[in-house]
Amino acid sequence: MSTFAENFKRRLFWLIARTCFTLYRAFPIFGSLRASIGIIRKGPKILVIRRNDGRGLSLPGGIAGWRENEVSTLRREVREETGLDVDSLELKTRYHSRSDVPCLISLFEVNASGELQDSWEGSACWMTIEQLEPQLLVSQRHALEYMKNIRGGSQAVSGGNSTPASK
């Protein structure tokens, strides 16, 4: 895709995301939203999205659609944001956050496969916990203790060229 089109998509995402967060903070007409996020590891590194809205880093995931369950939300969001397919997952916790918008967040540990790619929401990249911690969204900081606890396990991403070097 051309550089102009990529820049346009990034700026459009910035505008839409910032507007939606601002409006929903002021007028939470649907009450607490629901979201699912996933911890995807490759050795000591965690997959994060460098968000195009300028808010920092986030774990792959997002807001549930109407009547969409937490697992379907996670599978859809991981695919949209990273190009990866969720092979297996384990629910780690659910917690409530009011830092961005009122939201019940489901946190999963995820095994995924496929070819990593960027999306209009941001650029996917691998980072150590120490690298991502200062930039992680406030609403996702609760996930840090889980990331630290699963730091030393086996690889969680598989597939041919699915584990590119860190950006």
Q: What is the class in the CATH system?
A: Alpha Beta
Largest β sheet strand count, sense and barrel closure: 8 strands, mixed
**Distance, first to last CA:** 20 Å
Helix content bin? 25-40%
> What is the CATH superfamily?
Nucleoside Triphosphate Pyrophosphohydrolase
- The arrangement of helices and strands along the chain is HEEEEHEEEHHE
Morphology: globular
Counting helices, strands and paired strands, the structural category is: alpha+beta
Q: Which spans of ≥5 residues are poorly predicted at pLDDT below 50?
A: 159-167
Question: What's the tally of helices?
Answer: 4
Number of domains: 1
CATH architecture annotation: Alpha-Beta Complex
CATH topology: Nucleoside Triphosphate Pyrophosphohydrolase
What portion of residues belong to β-strands?
25-35%
Radius of gyration, whole Å: 15 Å
Mean pLDDT: 87
Number of strands: 8
Descriptive account of the structure:
The chain is of the alpha+beta class and 167 residues long. The protein has a single domain, classed as Nucleoside Triphosphate Pyrophosphohydrolase (Alpha-Beta Complex), CATH 3.90.79. The protein has helices at residues 3-26, 70-82, 129-132, 144-149, and strands spanning 33-42, 45-51, 57-58, 61-63, 85-97, 103-113, 122-128, 157-158. The longest helix has 24 residues, at 3-26. The two termini are 20 Å apart. 31% of the residues are buried. The model is unreliable at 159-167 (pLDDT under 50).
